[in-house]
Fold this sequence. Notes:
Layout: E1 2-7, E2 17-22, E3 25-29, H1 46-64, E4 68-71, E5 102-105, H2 113-126, E6 130-132, E7 137-138, E8 141-148, E9 158-166, E10 169-174, H3 182-190, E11 195-199, H4 210-226, E12 229-233, H5 240-253, E13 257-258, E14 263-266, E15 277-284, E16 292-299, H6 305-308, H7 310-314, E17 319-325, E18 331-335
Parallel strand pairs: 3-4, 4-5, 5-6, 10-11, 11-12, 12-13
Antiparallel strand pairs: 1-2, 1-17, 2-3, 7-8, 8-9, 9-10, 14-15, 15-16, 17-18
The structure holds zinc ion.
Amino acid sequence: MRLEILSAESLGVRGLCCRVEAGARVIVIDPGVALGIRRYGLLPHPVQIAAGRAVRQRIVAALEGATDMVFSHFHGDHVPLFKPNPYQLGFSHLPPCIKTLRVWSLSPAGQSFTSQARARDLMDLLGPHFQVAEGRADGPLRFSQGVPHGVGGPPFGSVMMTRVDVGGRVFVHASDIQLLDAATIDRILDWAPHWVLAAGPPLYLGQLDAGLRARAWANARRLAAGVGTLILDHHLMRSLAGLAWLEDLSSEVGSGLFAPPTSWAGPGSCWRRSGGNFTRLCRYGQAGTRSTHTVRLVSKRSPHRVISGTQKLRRLTAPRHCDADIDGSCLDASPLSAYT
Ligand SMILES: [Zn+2]
């Protein structure tokens, strides 16, 4: 089994897309990307736009060699869209082979009207290949029933988790659970995974009260203690507080927990939350280490300085994508060409 993480906040965009090689099957889970264009009334930084374009190309390339595609839910950072904004993955970007893939999806029933409309668009595009997969299994794949997106309920809805088992090595993709529901953690642990890729809590949201923060912390400790390797990203990595939270968790539970394997970098949305400066977070190190390096680049008040400041950017070597053998024997990161 081989896991490649294609989109995540720590790679500079919103999303939690990955590619899993499982014998003859190549599964792309949550092929989507977004940049949060309306947050705080600010448009994406030019560096974010470049990162988003690179991620979009990686997802399209992964789909070209895939056999299966999974939609955990229908939010705009997790699926291709009929009407994307300029920074998302649109139907027009997709390769022709998309209509030949097996497609496994959360049921649109009970989701928001927007999600249902997106599901209809996908059904129109994919025809009979689009299958509601909740509770089903196919070869190495197994799918959960819908579990809460964060705290669940309107307008968040639910998400479907995916388990991939190849020869007893188990990977679980748990998108947007935010570690806020204990029963969801139970379900993951019941699946006995060696590797879990999940969305951490959205610490950047003021409405995440003390009770929910405590719940996320307790669930994270329990999950980290029960699986071989836990990779947390997505909502957690939208603020510097998320990085500190991950460091604290890593200190408590020891090795085996880290943001995407080997290396970690990207502007995400952090630049909007860092006191007037665009902050780029870089993290280097093998599994089990916690070396962290934070670099302040340019003022967000004059973002175009980034375009003329390429010399400064060039001095940084950032990972472009995280690529890991599921056994941890092969770890690799390549440079982010979009930054240079
Ligand atoms: Zn999401």
